[in-house]
Every structure is written in structure tokens, then in C-alpha cells.
Design brief:
The protein has 391 residues and is an all-alpha fold. It has 3 domains: 243 residues, Rhopdopsin 7-helix transmembrane proteins (Up-down Bundle); 66 residues, no CATH class; 63 residues. Helix 13 crosses helix 15. The chain starts with 11 loop residues before the first helix and ends with a helix.
Length: 391
């Protein structure tokens, strides 16, 4: 059971610490991003994301200070609520800039800020236009829960927050599909960590929203306690995002990509019938793979292979998707798996480790090797080696 907001809370000191730690985390990570020498577009959006989270935590701390010190700053009551509606757009812009080649801001993106403006308008009608005394009384008694704007806003938080998490996951999924048309190794750039963070956040905020709705119906929690849960997770979210976001960088700014990634995703069903010259090229491609074995280069890309073959990356991608019905990633790693099998069967490699043979086959990532091998061979590398009676 919760207690009224005008009483001293046993958890106030803990929440103070959480808010302070979270706020200083945002300052540190924002500062690190700002002084970074080579910044991509995504770094600026990451900086903006930390700035927004920092403002949220600072306002949360000041709101708590208000409650525990007889409201010296009544104008700050409910000041952090609208800023929550900037979290989703900030995360979306960061992911969009990470996953889009040559990202540019468009005027239509301003629509992302409409929910923020709507909530500012709702709170103006409900809270901001009131006198200082009225705002304090409403806060102390939690009378704001009786106003229609309270269930409306918590519903908007639930819908928009989950919506942006799902949207971010869709962006990452589509991005992963696109880069498989260009890279043969994606474990360091597939944004798996960000996908996990978004899924975790979606589950957490779904639970938090359920608590807010339960409290609105049954009046079982204090508003202070509910806020504490959200602020606690924000501190953890910032820590993970700051550490991994700084290390991540942007694949399109940190690597030279000699093709338009957006135009490479051509499926067999969308392609026209192959011409004679295309069929001849397919034979040349397969011959190159068998004789020259370019897949042994762990850093081979669509552009480097197309250069060897004297064609454009777009044409090679077209042939792979339309004739061989697979993307570049699957095409190259199919050869690597077969090479690994060949190495395993050689007498002079009996004492090699599994990963040692995988490196020799062109793989440079254990997770990618294990995942790709099981997908193609239908068993794990260890199971395959055992099937050959090799120790």
C-alpha cells in the first residue's frame, strides 16, 4: 500500500541517490560523445537522447525535492511528465540514424513531437494554469488522479512508449536484412544488443503501465512509488545505452560502403528472367568461388567481390538474389561452412580446435560461425566433428 505524497518517504533517500546517479550518468556519457573526434550523425542523436533523459531525471529530482521541502518550487509540479513523450522519438531518431545509409532529417519527422505538445496542452488545462496554492493541494492529495487527463496521459504513455519500442525493433530487423546483402560478417554491426535492450524495455514499461492502470482503478500505490520504479529503470537504461552506444559507432560512417544498401534487396520473385550474359556471369562467379576461394578473407564484402569480378555491387547483388535466391551473407558463409567441413576431414587437422578450423575457413566470429553452421548443416559444429569421430 502506498502513502500520501505529503509525508516523508522511507525510500526518498534511495530515490534521491538513483536520480542523482542517473543524472550524472547522462552528463558523463553526453560529454564523452561531445568530445569524440570522429562523430557520425547517430552520435549527435545519441547526445540528444542523453540530454533528454538527463532533463527528465533532473526534473524528477526537483519534483522530489518539492515534495520533501514543502513545495518551494510549485511551478515544477508535473514538469517531468511531458518530457517522457520525447523519449520515444529520441530513441527512434538514434536507431533510424544508425540503420539508414546517408540519413538526413526531414520536415515530416517533426510529427514525432506532436504527442509531447498534446501532453503539454492537457497538463496546462489540468495543472499548469492553476495558482501555486491549487497546484500544491492537488499534488499533496493526489487529486490529479480524479481528472480525466490522468488516465488519458498514462494510456498515452503506454501506447506511445510501446509503439516506439516496436518501431525500433522493426527498423533493426529491416536493417539486419539489408546489411546481409553487403557484408559477410555482421556480428559486430547487427545491433543485437540494442534489440535486446528494446525488448527488455518494452517488457518493463508494459509492466509499469499496468501498475499505473491498476492504481488508477484500485488506488493501491502512491504516485511517488510508481515514479520511483520508472526512474530506477531509466538509470539502468542509460548505463547500458551509454556504454554500448559509444562502442557501437555507425556502420555507414565507420566503414566505407561502396553501394546503395537500400537498393540491394531484390528477391527472385521481383526479378526479370535472366539473360544469356547473366547466366554466363553466374558460371564465372561460381568458378571464382571454387578456384580463388575469396570467402577465406574474413572481411570480404559485396563491393570487394564485385571488384574482383569486374561488375558493380548492385549487379552482383541482383544475380545473387534473382538466380541463387540468397543474400550475400548466406552465399559466402555457405562456402565457409563447406570449407570447414573439408578441413575437418583432413588428417593433418585432427588436433586443431573447432574455432581454429573455423578461422581457417574464413569465419572471424564464434557466434556467427555457430549460428550459420547450425542453420546450414542442421547440427552444431561440435556435433558435426563428433560425427566424424574426431577429437
Amino acid at each position: 500500500m502506498g502513502v500520501r505524497c505529503n509525508k516523508k518517504y522511507t525510500g526518498v533517500n534511495v530515490l534521491n541517490i538513483i536520480l542523482i546517479i542517473g543524472f550524472y550518468q547522462t552528463l558523463i556519457f553526453a560529454g564523452i560523445i561531445l568530445v569524440r573526434k570522429q562523430k557520425g550523425v547517430s552520435d549527435y542523436f545519441l547526445f540528444g537522447l542523453f540530454l533528454i533523459y538527463g532533463i527528465t531525471l533532473l526534473l524528477g529530482y526537483l519534483e522530489l525535492y518539492n515534495r520533501t521541502n514543502d513545495y518551494p518550487f510549485p511551478f515544477l509540479i508535473n514538469s517531468s511528465t511531458p518530457v517522457i513523450f520525447l523519449h520515444g522519438p529520441a530513441i527512434w531518431f538514434y536507431i533510424k540514424s544508425l540503420t539508414t545509409q546517408n540519413f538526413r532529417f526531414k520536415s515530416k519527422y517533426l510529427l514525432h513531437f506532436l504527442p509531447f505538445l498534446m501532453v503539454v496542452g492537457l497538463l496546462f488545462l489540468n495543472t499548469y494554469r492553476l495558482s501555486a496554492e491549487e497546484r500544491i493541494i492537488m499534488e499533496r492529495t493526489e487529486a490529479f488522479k480524479e481528472h480525466i487527463t490522468f488516465p488519458l496521459i498514462i494510456s498515452m504513455v503506454a501506447v506511445f512508449t510501446q509503439g516506439y519500442f516496436v518501431w525500433g525493433l522493426i527498423l533493426i530487423r529491416n536493417y539486419k536484412r539489408r546489411i546481409k546483402n553487403y557484408f559477410s560478417e555482421i556480428s559486430s554491426i547487427d545491433l543485437a544488443w540494442l534489440r535486446i535492450l528494446l525488448i527488455t524495455s518494452a517488457v518493463f514499461y508494459a509492466g509499469t503501465s499496468l501498475l499505473y492502470i491498476t492504481d488508477y482503478v484500485f488506488r493501491v500505490f502512491s504516485y511517488h512509488w510508481l515514479q520511483s520504479i520508472g526512474y530506477s529503470y531509466q538509470a539502468v537504461f542509460i548505463l547500458v545505452l551509454g556504454y554500448r552506444g559509444y562502442k557501437q559507432g555507425n556502420v555507414f560512417s565507420s566503414r566505407r560502403v561502396y553501394a546503395n544498401i537500400e537498393s540491394l534487396n531484390i528477391h527472385a520473385s521481383e526479378a526479370n528472367a535472366l539473360k544469356d550474359k547473366d547466366k554466363i556471369f553466374v558460371q564465372e562467379l561460381l568458378q571464382q568461388m571454387d578456384i580463388q576461394r575469396p570467402y577465406l578473407n574474413s572481411e570480404i564484402t559485396l563491393a570487394s567481390l564485385s571488384e574482383k569480378l569486374g561488375v558493380t555491387p548492385e549487379y552482383l547483388s541482383f544475380i545473387l538474389n534473382s538466380k541463387l535466391n540468397r543474400n550475400f551473407f548466406d552465399f559466402v558463409n555457405q562456402y565457409r561452412v563447406e570449407e570447414f567441413k573439408r578441413i575437418c576431414r583432413e588428417e593433418n587437422t585432427r588436433n586443431f580446435t573447432i574455432m581454429g578450423m573455423a578461422w581457417d575457413a574464413g569465419f572471424n566470429s564464434k557466434p556467427t560461425f555457430n549460428r550459420v553452421f547450425k542453420k546450414i548443416a542442421g547440427m552444431t559444429p561440435g556435433e558435426y566433428v563428433k560425427s566424424l569421430n574426431i577429437k
